[in-house]
Structure formats: structure tokens, C-alpha cells
Write a structure and sequence with these properties.
Blueprint: H1 3-24, H2 33-43, H3 50-61, H4 70-87, E1 97-98, E2 101-102, H5 104-108, H6 110-130, H7 137-152, H8 157-170, H9 176-200, H10 207-234, H11 237-240, H12 246-249, H13 255-259, H14 261-277, H15 287-298
Antiparallel strand pairs: 1-2
Helix pairs in contact: 1-3, 1-15, 2-6, 3-4, 3-9, 3-15, 4-6, 4-9, 7-9, 8-9, 9-10, 10-14, 10-15, 14-15
Length: 301
């Protein structure tokens, strides 16, 4: 892997998904203007776009053209953007900074931020319902909607956030198994959904290949969260784009808090190695997934 090949791939994915989202999101001059401005601010304000890149990368690994996966890739990013808006609210993580600039509620107010998140979630499912370019037809789009709904619901991302908030509020001292359960849901569910939606676009795919890609995504999701926890401890606010040290200040359970920084890094490496092992049966078309796996544990933001 070379950094330039990974960066070229991420730039290509970012340009593809942002162009599609620019067309999809309501123009800021359309009523209600404050809501539409808030939606665009949250979605088009930068970011790594790793989740759409995973959808495109998984599609390439199984022989699908990237442009046929714009709908699931964009739907995934819309759900991610909505989750960030709500996570940053005072009732949740209470953060003032996201992606290096003021959070949505700091710019548009709490009420408008909540509505923007709600509207982005609805738009994600509207997109999946309407885009006829997705391979596999209506049945595949229905399965994608089911996958995404489960990933962001009470048994996915929202449930993981609820467990995280409950543990922090009660001072509940959790062990590694409980922490992994939180993040399998809070962070990992959406990452797994992004890869699974790509496999659903190819109904004839060998089930063994689909399982290996799912296992890759599960390992990647946990490694991603561990790296986030490490960056919260040792990253710089100006680089990571959000407030450094916030998890520790709020008393949240994190991998470095439970394991120490050295063991947390080692656990992330073990997970990445397992993720890569699950790609061994795939040819060079899966290289973008391999590059992303390495990037996850080496990134500085």
C-alpha cells in the first residue's frame, strides 16, 4: 500500500459522494431556509467519508461499479451526519467543535439542529427507496433499507449511544466485554451496514464471501473506535477536529482507560490483522479495503 493510492481512492470517493449529496440536498434558498442550511452545513462540512468509501470499496471487491452504489453510500453518510448532529447536542456529548468548526447546534440553535438530524435521517431512506440505479432492483433496496434501519436503531447505533450515556451518567464501571458491546453497536453497526449494503447489491454473491466481508467490517468498526479513543487521549484538537480529552473529562469508559494506551494500540492492530485475514480470498480489487484497514489504525484525525 502507498499513501498516494489510498489518498487518491478517498478523494475519488469523497468527490463522488459529495457531488451526489450536493444534488440531493435541498438548496438553502428553499423554504424552510434555516433547516436546509443546517442540513447542508452538517453534511457538506468536510470529514473523512470513510463509511461511503467502505461501501464503494466493498462494491469494487465484488465487481460492482462505484457509480451504481451512490444511493447506499450517500444514505450512509446522511445517517452518519445526523448522528453527529445529535451526538454533539448538550443533552448528549455536549460538544462545541466538529470537523474543525462549530457544531451544528452552535451555529443554528439546538431546535434547528435536532430538526436537521431528523430530516437527514428521513432523506436517507427516501433516497434508498427512489434510486433505480442500484443493482438488484427494488428487493435489494428494500434489504438495504432494512439493514440501515437496524444499524441506526435501538439495536444499533442509537442503542449503543444509550448504553454509553447510561454508563457515564451512573458511574457504572464496565469491563472490556461491556465496552465492546457498546461500540459494536454505537460505532461498528453503521460501518458493517455500509459494507453489507454493497453485498446486497449483488444478490448472487457467494454467502461465504459476504460473511468474510461482514467479519472484515466488524473488526474494522472496533479498531476504528479504539483509534478514536486513543486520539481523544493524545491527539491535538486542531488536528482531530473535535475537542481533545472530552471523553476522559466526562468520565466515559474508553479502551485506553481500561487497557492503557500501549495495549489499546495492540488490540487495534490485532483487529486490523483479523480484518485483513478475511480479505485473503479476494483479489486486487479488494485493495481499497486493505488500504482503509491500515489507515484506520494510523490516522491522526
Amino acid at each position: 500500500m502507498t499513501d498516494s493510492r489510498l489518498q487518491d481512492f478517498l478523494v475519488e470517493c469523497r468527490e463522488r459522494v459529495t457531488a451526489a449529496l450536493e444534488d440531493l440536498l435541498p438548496e438553502p434558498e428553499i423554504q424552510p431556509e434555516p433547516l436546509h442550511r443546517a442540513m447542508r452545513y452538517a453534511v457538506l462540512g468536510g470529514g473523512k467519508y470513510i463509511r461511503p468509501a467502505l461501501t464503494y470499496g466493498a462494491g469494487l471487491a465484488i465487481g460492482l461499479a462505484p457509480q451504481t452504489l451512490n444511493a447506499p453510500a450517500c444514505a450512509l453518510e446522511l445517517i452518519h451526519a445526523y448522528s453527529l448532529i445529535h451526538d454533539d447536542l448538550p443533552a448528549m456529548d455536549d460538544d462545541d467543535l466538529r470537523r474543525g468548526r462549530p457544531t451544528c447546534h452552535k451555529v443554528f440553535g439546538e431546535a434547528m439542529a435536532i430538526l436537521a438530524g431528523d430530516a437527514l435521517q428521513a432523506l436517507a431512506f427516501q433516497l434508498l427507496a427512489a434510486d433505480n440505479a442500484v443493482p438488484g432492483g427494488a428487493e435489494a433496496r428494500l434489504a438495504m433499507s432494512d439493514t440501515l434501519a437496524r444499524a441506526c436503531g435501538s439495536r444499533g447505533m442509537a442503542g449503543g449511544q444509550a448504553l454509553d450515556l447510561s454508563a457515564a451518567a451512573s458511574g457504572w464501571k464496565i469491563d472490556l466485554v461491556a465496552l465492546e458491546n457498546i461500540h459494536i453497536h454505537k460505532t461498528g453497526a453503521l460501518i458493517r451496514a455500509g459494507v453489507r449494503m454493497a453485498t446486497l447489491a449483488r444478490p448472487e454473491l457467494d454467502p461465504k464471501s459476504a460473511r468474510r466481508l461482514d467479519r472484515y467490517a466488524k473488526c474494522l468498526g472496533l479498531a476504528f473506535q479504539i483509534r478514536d479513543d486513543i486520539l481523544d487521549e493524545e491527539g491535538e484538537t486542531t488536528v482531530i477536529g473535535k475537542t481533545q480529552g472530552k471523553d476522559r473529562a466526562q468520565g466515559k469508559a474508553t479502551y485506553p482507560a481500561l487497557l492503557g494506551l500501549t495495549e489499546a494500540r495492540e488490540k487495534a492492530r490485532i483487529l486490523i490483522n483479523e480484518a485483513l485475514t478475511n480479505l485473503e480470498d479476494f483479489d486486487e480489487r479488494a485493495d481499497p479495503l486493505r488500504w482503509i484497514a491500515h489507515y484506520i489504525v494510523d490516522r491522526d484525525r
